[in-house]
Amino acid sequence: MSLREATFSGSDAAYFLKAAVVGILVGGLATGFHSGLEFLFSSYASLRSSLDGGLAIAVSACLSAAAVTAAFLLVQRVAPEAAGSGIQEIEGAMEDKRPLNWARVLVAKFFGGLLALGSGLVLGREGPTIHMGAMAAEAISRSSAVQGADHKGLLAAGAAAGLAAAFNAPLAAILFIVEETRRQFPFSYRTYMAVIVASILSAAVTEQLTHIGPVLLIDVKYIPVWSFLLLALMGVGLGALGVFFNWALISVMDLFARIPKGLRWIPALVIGGVTGVLLNVFPAATGGGEDLVQGLVTDSYGIWALILLTVLRFGGVLFSYASGVPGGIFAPMLSIATCAGLAFGVASVSMLPLEDEFRAACAVAAMGGFFAASVRAPLVGVVLVMELTGAYALIMPVLVTCSTASLTAHHLGGRPIYEQLLERTLRLSGQAPDSEPDKTPVQLGTRKS
Questions:
Q1: Structure pTM?
Q2: Domain of life here (predicted)?
Q3: What average pLDDT values come out for the chain (449 residues) when binned by 10 residues?
Q4: Burial class, 302, CB count within 10 angstroms (exposed 0-12 / middle 13-18 / buried 19+)
Q5: What is the domain count for the chain?
Q6: Where residue 152 sits, what CATH number does that domain have?
Q7: Which residue, among 171, 89, 84, 156, has the nearest Cα to 384 in the 3D structure?
Q8: Residue 302 is part of which domain span?
Q9: Are residues 371 and 297 in the same domain?
Q10: Of the candidates 306, 331, 177, 336, which has an alpha carbon nearest to the alpha carbon of residue 245?
Q11: Same structural domain for residues 205 and 273?
């Protein structure tokens, strides 16, 4: 049924009411999760500052190691599918190939996420909130016997609500469903509007409770049109970096999977300990990176410092994610892109007649470009960056960077990261993934047969 042919009915109203409940519930849940993390961050920072150098490092190493190990064991014993971001789990559930143990996942994701992210791992909040959003929608679906396409639509609405709450970016959340889950999402008037309703309400609840505007507000004015050529060149580099990132992430996860099952807690222990040390000696290399981005843009970092930070955060997210604890890769990817983009901008400003604010423009454009190359959702990359930074004057430059990055990744043979993660998950669970994924985009208002 197309959007034009759809008519409003009592069943539509009941379904949209469920979507509204999902949005409000997810907004409150995400706010509680974020508030808990902020409390842990501030408490942990206060503890470190109250201790002397050597003692602070030792205590941090022990605490972070214990927290990450506890998060790993909690996930393994309660809900193994709660490891990582969970986006691939939602896509698998919408294909009827992955379990939906909503209560177990909520417990493991919420408390495991607090332990893992609170320890300083290079992981983002958005992964847990997206997964928890879908599980909240699953709880509503079971309580009211929602089935079939409506059920899958409500799962997508919950996931979108989780992303909207994580970044206060409802439009990007809606587009994420359109681009990322185009293979699984049952497009219809009801399901599409349910995603919109849930995303709006989730972001509204979060903003009302936290009073937070754009998460990574960056003030950048227009840049010369001729500099778009430089951003296109940067997009090519980001496209290659995105393909390498996807390959490296899967490779590290496969490497850890070779460790005997009874010893897989050891990487979590070691990674947590190293993170605790870095919290004291190089804190910029830890955490999701939301707070780091604005500092990088406003401060005058040298090109070699930016390259070093890019490498450290790149490696940090690979090992943090592969450790098997809850956490997302969106926020770390944005921070990696910021470092790489600023390095490119610093080099450009030093060699060409460009204003210093071109550095910030490169940082903003790089966020979208790296996201587009890895996730292969260029439109989401553009809108997400706009909503996060508020730098709407840079829509054209970001479009250029995202387009060239996505095209480069495509021609290098790269594939979307969550598609690869889902295939890996299905393979490890003994299920055969689709031999040839359907890459044909689905038009709004239509459904695949």
A1: 0.91
A2: Bacteria
A3: 53 92 96 95 95 93 98 97 94 92 96 97 95 96 88 96 93 93 88 96 91 73 91 98 98 96 95 97 91 83 93 97 96 95 95 91 96 95 92 94 97 95 92 54 38
A4: exposed
A5: 2
A6: 1.10.3080.10
A7: 171
A8: 225-428
A9: yes
A10: 336
A11: no
